[in-house]
Task: structure prediction
Amino acid sequence: MAAGYAEILRARHAMRLLTGTLVGRLPNATAAIAIVLFIRDEGGTYSLAGALAAVYGVANAIGQPVLGRLVDLRGQPKVQLPAAVLSGLAMTVFAFAGTGSLPLAYGAVAAAGLFTPPLEGGLRALWPSVLAREEQVHTAYAMDAIAQEVMFTVGPLLVTVCVSLWSAQAALIVLNVIGVVGALSVVVSKPSRAWRSAPREAHWLGALRSPGLLVLLGAFLFIGLALGSITVAGVSYADGNGGDAVYGWMMAALGLGALVGGTVYGARQWSGAPEARLRWLVALLALFYVPLVLMPGPVAMVALTALAGVFLAPCIACAFIVVDRHAPQGTVTEAFSWLVTTFTVGASVGTAVAGPVVEWAGTRAGFAVPAVTGAVALLVLLATGRVLAPPRTSGRVALSSENDPNRAVEPRFSSGDRA
Result:
């Protein structure tokens, strides 16, 4: 599989698109952590920090599918870059306003989330125009998930480094400037400028008219909730066990565990339908959240946090394939954006739920939240097995030759099992 990754990265534009997307998504990926640390420095409560992070997530949930649909209709450059600039400006306003005016703080955070560009969904839509074969696209989805975990490993450390060197305010500003640069790198590339969505059937529900996609979104809402609750519970744990450094290592370990899990998962080809495989992966993800309630010393806790992240990237990589198999034609960016949105809003709700739980019942109860919500995600998938059955046709990815970058249709490959 390492050779397969290398082959993908050697493809023209691939490295630039992957790197630009990761850098462009850095503000979104670190928003919850940066907001929590900023509000704590401002003297605010965990509940306020969780509420602001939740507002960001809800606004992001609204904006991502809307912007994704606009990308499908109008192309990437006309949507992605203006959105990135507006989001960065809004977060800068929040960084300078602080908590002095709560309506302004909530409004700025909401605007930052609303205009977050759908770079992740955009990249998944671009892979088929850069790669020549369906199996390469599936491998790219797995590699993409692994690369995201590199960002989630480095991101928390970058936030804590910025806070240590300067301040939480500076961290918010610097991360958003970096994000705009990443978005710019993507949208000026030839594949992004040339990409066009396949013709779509006019329907006000867009990608949401797929029952299978709705089931997947329901499950990933609870997976996101589990991840978001760890963010707040981790701050509470670190406050009594070493401070910001321990918190940074815990969040980095969560991403590192997912990175290792995703690498191992992508090292082989899997038989069977990805819908069934996803249920097993979610079950293992929920199981590995349970040991967090033990709350041992910092070193052991960092190790348990790494184990808790092991099955996250495999779940995400498998979900990419399931989305591709169930999304209606012509809604590729919107469908991927809905998955990103649902996961993000789940994480934001998780921060909002975990804040009061930690304050009222303690840190251990905060770490019980991901175990419970992970189990609920599994129940959603098990209860809707018939709805999320493998479709007769799949693979709504576009196949374009590098010699014809303007060809960005979405022909349906024969149904495949590889992820």
Remarks:
- Confidence is low (pLDDT under 50) at residues 394-419.
- The longest helix spans residues 134-165.
